[in-house]
Specification:
The complex is a heterodimer of chains A (315) and B (296).
Chain A: H1 2-14, E1 19-23, E2 27-32, E3 35-38, H2 40-43, H3 51-60, H4 62-73, E4 79-80, E5 86-87, E6 96-99, E7 117-120, E8 125-126, E9 131-134, E10 141-143, E11 146-152, E12 168-175, E13 178-180, H5 190-194, E14 200-201, E15 206-208, E16 219-224, E17 227-233, H6 241-251, E18 259-261, E19 277-282, E20 286-294, H7 306-313
Parallel strand pairs in A: 6-18, 8-14, 9-20
Antiparallel strand pairs in A: 1-2, 1-5, 1-15, 2-3, 3-4, 6-7, 10-13, 11-12, 11-18, 12-15, 16-17, 16-19, 19-20
Chain B: E1 2-6, E2 10-15, E3 18-21, H1 34-43, H2 45-59, E4 63-64, E5 70-71, E6 80-83, E7 101-104, E8 109-110, E9 115-117, E10 125-127, E11 130-136, E12 152-159, E13 162-164, H3 171-175, E14 181-189, E15 200-205, E16 208-214, H4 222-232, E17 240-242, E18 258-263, E19 268-274, H5 287-294
Parallel strand pairs in B: 6-17, 8-14, 9-19
Antiparallel strand pairs in B: 1-2, 1-5, 1-14, 2-3, 3-4, 6-7, 10-13, 11-12, 11-17, 12-14, 15-16, 15-18, 18-19
Helix pairs in contact in B: 1-2
Classes of the chains: A alpha+beta (315), B alpha+beta (296).
């Protein structure tokens, strides 16, 4: 234990801790304890048309800016996080790719399902404190899927699993909000299921990879109105992170700032409905809070959706 | 007006067999990337660039097209929304299939003269799908069908290259390979295409006609597509919707093939095919696929 504490202390002194964020009117910032420090003077020289590509290019050229941002982080300046409105740290990724059915459902599946994924609407991203808007589509239910998200740091094409982590810049909390019962039966209806506006909450901040000791052993929690729904570890993942990166980049090239959602454990999914307050967090990545709005005021059972949990686990 | 990139991603205006360099006219657009540049032009086309470009066409030097390399007019679109199975298969279907779509990776885009690379994966066959592409101008969210055309900036040839026979119904796996999105040779502004719902789409492989159909066979028509897609996702300037293909006439792509696609008014897009595994499939139309999709 003392060794771990010492290692954390050394990490801190070496300046490896880094949480990047946008706040208020998309001011770029770094988290420093309970404060947030404005880094716009450091990064505003980066060519950009908006906060989305600003963050992508900061990530791409991070080595150039790291020490200045670290100095800002240690400057004892800044404002309390509680006094600002946080924004999604990657507000407009070039791509969002989501792994489908990628957990062993608390070990109930003997082996991972065939590897699969879908692209999610990159303009659906929202941040901490924002509202998920459920559309008036004839769904059977809307579900939350709490997931670990990873952000690419370098251009990545045809990457081997052994080198995969070199391409990871950092990690984020993500929720893959899902509409069920739309689209073709047995086919790929992911566009209608997953890409509604506001269906991609990400945040509250982006944590650099060096701060996450073992991404394959992260504890994920999601609660709705204070009741725990999902609670699982990334150790239950079917296709592990290096394999997913190898597979995803064998098909398409990924760029700095692109986001990979690693899939969810379906044990604990439940309905989202009007007025819900959702809280989701992964140890070390902070907590994102969201509201839910649904104008038709449809009602679903609250609590865990047992039928989807049993179906996916093959019970 | 016909816009595209050429050589080192200079923006150009195509007129007959020549191209005019527009870069001196677009220098004040904040554009870290070529896609940002064309998005900027699209966003301010009616208020600013249309008249500037028209003037340029009268005064600037014209370079013969044969002396330049054309590039994709939308090199990395923010989104590519692809309609799935959206034709009546020459009227063989009684009614359109339930509306559906998928995203194609923006990284899949290549331009005229480029090469489609077939990956050494488990696909049973690779198909060309010639499609009409709609390029979004004004941001579209929850658009009514009668307003839909106001959000279309222009049209473009697009081939939705497809890998078949993967073991799960996965659009990412089937459609999003790098180089699987040939488009071009240029982007044609909407005013040049009076009726996009009644134009011919043709595709040849090595000079043999494969696909030949009219966009009047489309299942869900363009206004409905825009209404539906924009009810789900916000569509932005430079995003593309490809309208789906008529499967009567699909065929294999294989190493050494030369693919040409022409839609009325949109020019001829020409790309090559490379398969390092040198697999071979029967040439000509895939009639099994055509019959299955038509319900025969």
């Amino acid at each position: 234990m003392r060794i771990i504490v010492l290692a954390e202390r050394i990490n801190y002194l070496l300046g490896c801790e880094m949480k990047l964020v946008f706040y208020n009117d998309f001011i770029p910032g770094v988290v420093s304890g309970d404060n947030i420090v404005d880094i716009s003077e450091i990064v505003n020289g980066i060519p950009h048309i908006g906060p989305g590509d600003l963050m992508s290019r900061l990530i791409q050229n991070f080595d150039q800016y790291r020490s200045s941002i670290e100095s800002a982080e240690k400057s004892n300046s800044g404002v309390p996080i509680t006094s600002v409105r946080l924004r999604a740290p990657v507000p407009k990724p070039g791509k969002i790719l989501c792994m489908a059915g990628n957990y062993l459902e608390n070990g109930t599946l003997k082996e991972p399902r065939p590897i699969n994924a879908f692209l999610k609407n990159r303009d659906a991203v929202i941040g901490d404190g924002d509202t998920i808007i459920l559309p008036p589509a004839p769904v059977t239910i809307f579900h939350h899927e709490a997931e670990a998200g990873l952000v690419f740091g370098k251009r990545a094409s045809k990457i081997k699993a052994a080198e995969a982590y070199e391409y990871v810049f950092g990690y984020v909390n993500v929720i893959d909000v899902s509409a069920r019962g739309l689209g073709p039966e047995g086919g790929d209806g992911f566009f209608m299921g997953k890409s509604w506006h506001t269906f991609a909450p990400i945040g509250p901040y982006l944590v650099t990879a060096d701060e996450v000791k073992d991404p394959q052993d992260l504890h994920i929690k999601l609660s709705v109105n204070g009741s725990i729904r999902q609670e699982y570890s990334t150790s239950d993942m079917g296709h592990k992170i290096p394999e997913t990166i190898e597979w995803a980049t064998s098909i398409a090239t990924f760029n700095p700032g692109d986001v990979l959602f690693l899939g969810t454990n379906h044990q604990g999914l439940g309905a989202l409905q009007d007025g819900d307050e959702v809280e989701m967090g992964i140890e070390g990545l902070g907590t994102i809070r969201l509201n839910v709005n649904e104008n038709l005021k449809r009602k679903w059972d609250t609590g865990v959706d047992r039928s989807v949990a049993d179906r996916i686990a093959g019970r | 007006m016909k816009l595209t990139f050429f050589n080192d991603y200079q923006l150009g205006l195509v007129e007959d067999d020549s191209i005019i360099d527009l870069m001196p006219l677009v220098g004040n657009i904040n554009a870290p990337t070529s896609q940002d540049l064309i998005n900027g032009v699209i966003s301010e086309f009616n208020t600013r660039y249309r008249s500037l470009f028209l003037k340029a066409s009268a005064t600037e030097i014209k370079i013969p097209l044969s002396q330049v390399q054309l590039r994709a007019p939308l090199p990395r679109p923010g989104k590519i929304v692809a309609m799935a199975a959206n034709y009546m298969e020459n009227g063989a279907l009684k009614e359109p299939r339930p509306i559906n779509a998928f995203f194609k990776s923006p990284e899949s885009v290549i331009g005229n003269g480029d090469t489609v690379i077939l990956p050494p994966n488990l696909a049973t066959i690779f198909h060309h799908e010639a499609e009409l592409g709609l390029v979004i101008g004004e941001t579209a969210k929850d658009v009514q069908p009668e307003e839909a055309y106001k959000h279309i900036f222009g049209y473009i040839n697009f081939v939705d290259v497809s890998a078949r026979g993967l073991n799960i119904p996965s659009f990412y796996w089937g459609k999003s390979w790098d180089t699987f999105g040939p488009m071009g040779p240029y982007l044609v502004t909407a005013d040049e295409i009076p009726d996009p719902q009644n134009i011919n789409v043709n595709l040849w492989v090595n000079g043999d006609i494969r696909q030949t159909y009219n966009t009047n066979d489309m299942g869900h028509k363009i206004p409905r597509i825009i209404e539906w897609a924009s009810s789900i996702a916000r569509l932005e300037a430079g995003d593309i919707i490809i309208c789906g293909t008529n499967h009567q006439g699909l065929g294999a792509l294989q190493d050494g093939d030369k693919l040409e696609m022409e839609t009325d008014g949109l020019g001829i897009l020409s790309v090559l095919v490379q398969d390092d595994s040198k697999r071979e499939w029967p040439r000509g139309v895939d009639t099994e696929m055509a019959d299955r999709v038509a319900g025969r």
